[in-house]
Each structure stands twice: as structure tokens, then as C-alpha cells.
Amino acid sequence: MRSRLVVASITMLQILYITCMPASGLSQTDLYFEAASIRPSNLENLNIAAGIRAGVRADGAQVRYTFVPLIAYVGYAYEIRNYQIVGPDWLRSELFDIVAKLPDGSTTKEVPQMLRALLQDRFGLKVHRETKEFPVYALEIAKGGLKMKELTADPSDAVDLLNPLNVSFTADRAGGTFNLGGGSYFTAGDKGVEGKKLSMTALTYMLTPFLDRPAIDMTGLKGVYDLELNISPEDLRAMQIRSAVNAGVSLPPQALRVLDNASGDSLGAALDKLGLKLVSRKAPLEVVVVDAMQKTPTEN
Which range marks the domain in which residue 22 is found? Predict the structure, then answer.
């Protein structure tokens, strides 16, 4: 039973980390953390029954990563979403905690470059970039027009999706909540799906782990919105199974059959009530290919 809870916890963590960041360049860096400690995450402390908390937090001159899989570190370092990373399967299953000290005078905008240098130094990471065509779901405004009211935005609450250094994930048996900071969050569980102060880009990030292909924002909307998605229990269960499949978790055949029995119609209907729709398309996206990486880091 305990092992099942650990697997479920890792699956829920993957939902958070699958959603990290749009693509940017792979420029070289000479920026380094002043000091960094890397340790394997203690999975014995990861128990969804008791509630778990994971994520990334910048506090003063320190950045702390908790229960983060290697694939997400690559995503954070190169500012690219996890489904755009090509590498060995164990990138998803090997979790590490990192505590790093920023050098004097540095800014949090420089953290991805410092993390990139750390991964290259301690894990021997080598990558290259390609462009591949992906089947995607384009989030678009439905024919009847948008049915959500844009919220008045406070610039101080803006969520920096390019450099998310204060994001967290909490979960228990009832579901999980992704806190993006600034009052922006997304929750999915037994009671349904709800989002607060979400941009459409953030919404596609949140939806992608639950779908059979990535979702990208093509609405052209720049504001933030509150929303609720009334999804049937059957479709919600299928979305949870899909998130596990996307996270690389092995599931028994009876669990996978849930995907065959769910229509997905309730998600489409829920989006339609908001004036949105998901449309199947193909789009060229950048990918980061991991050419080399050690499974464990060199000593602290």
C-alpha cells in the first residue's frame, strides 16, 4: 500500500513539473551558484495520504528545489517545457533536492543560467537543440466568443512563467493544487477543476499533463481569469490516468482501460461554457535533446 502511495505521489509531482516553461535559447553561461548542495529526494517522506508539498522557492539569496525530477531541472535550466525534452526515461523518475546560494549582486533572472552550469558540472549534462513537429491542441476562442470576464490585474502579482521561482504543489487523497504565486493557482481533484488568476498560457500549462498531446495558447488573450471546469467523474478519472501515463508511470491494464471508456466530452463542454475550445493541430516546436547526463551527481 505504501509503495502505491509513493508512486501516486510521484505521479502528482510530475503533473506540476510537466508544466514548466516555454522554450528559449541554449546560450552558454559563465554564471554559477556560489555554493550548491544536491541530495536524492527522500521518498520515504513522500506520502500523499498525509499530504505532500513540493516545488521551487527563492528566499533571499537562496533557491531551494524540493522533490524535483531531473527532467524538470533540465526544463528549468533551459526554460523549456518537459514534453520538449528528449532523453532517457529515468530523467522522470530520479528526484533530487537542491539548495543553492546566489552570488552577491545576482538576480533571480539569472538562476536558469546558474542551474544550467550546475547540471553541466555535477551531472555532466550535454544537450543540443532541434525543431520537431508535434501534434498539439490549440486553445482558441470558441465561435460564440469569450464568456469569461477579464480580471483587473495587479502588476505586482504577475506570474513569471519564464522563471518560476516561487511555485509549489500540495496534494492529498482528494487531489492537488498548483500555486503559481500572486494569488494564481490551479486545483484538480474529486471536487472538480478550478483556476484563479490564470492567464491562458498558464491554463494550457495546467491542462497539458491531463491530455494525450500538448496544449498551446492560441487565443491571443493577454489577461487573467477565474474559471471552473465541470468535468464528469469518468472523464476526470481518465485525465488522472492520462497524467500518470504522461509522467512515465507504469499502470496495470485495468487502469489503462479507463482511457478507452471516457469520452472527454465533458471537458470540451466545460471549456465551451467559458467560450474556449481545444482544436487538434500540428505545430513546429523546439526540443532539447539530452546527449549525455549522469544518473547521480558528483559529491557535494
Answer: 2-292
Rounded CA gap, 196 and 72, in Å?
24
Q: Report d(CA 204, CA 31) in Å as an integer.
A: 31
Enclosing H/E stretch for 266: helix 265-273
Of the given ranges (8-17, 61-70, 178-187), which has the lowest mean pLDDT? 8-17
Distance CA 77, CA 86 (A): 14
* Percent above pLDDT 90 for the chain: 38
Q: Indicate whether 133 belongs to any domain.
A: yes
Q: Which of 35-44, 186-195, 200-209 has the lowest mean pLDDT?
A: 186-195
Q: Residue 299: inside a domain, yes or no?
A: no
A 10 A CB-CB count for 43 gives 14
Output the CA–CA distances (angstroms, integers) from residue 299 to 40, 146, 164, in the order listed.
12, 53, 27
User: DSSP string covering 124-148, please?
Assistant: --EEEEEEEEEEEEEEEE-TT---S
**What is the pTM for the complete model shown?**
0.74
Cβ density class 115-129: b for 16+ within 10 Å, e for less = bbbbbbebbebebee
Mean pLDDT of the chain: 81
How many contiguous H segments (helices) and E segments (strands) does the chain have? 8, 13
Helix, coil or strand: residue 74? helix
The confidence score (pLDDT) of residue 22 equals 40
Q: How many domains does the chain have?
A: 1
Q: Residue 52 domain-assigned?
A: yes
Q: What is the pLDDT of residue 296?
A: 94
- Look at phi and psi of residue 127 and say left if phi exceeds 0, alpha if psi is from -120 to 50, else beta: beta
Does 300 reside within a domain? no
Q: Residue 245: phi, psi to the nearest 5? A: -60, -45
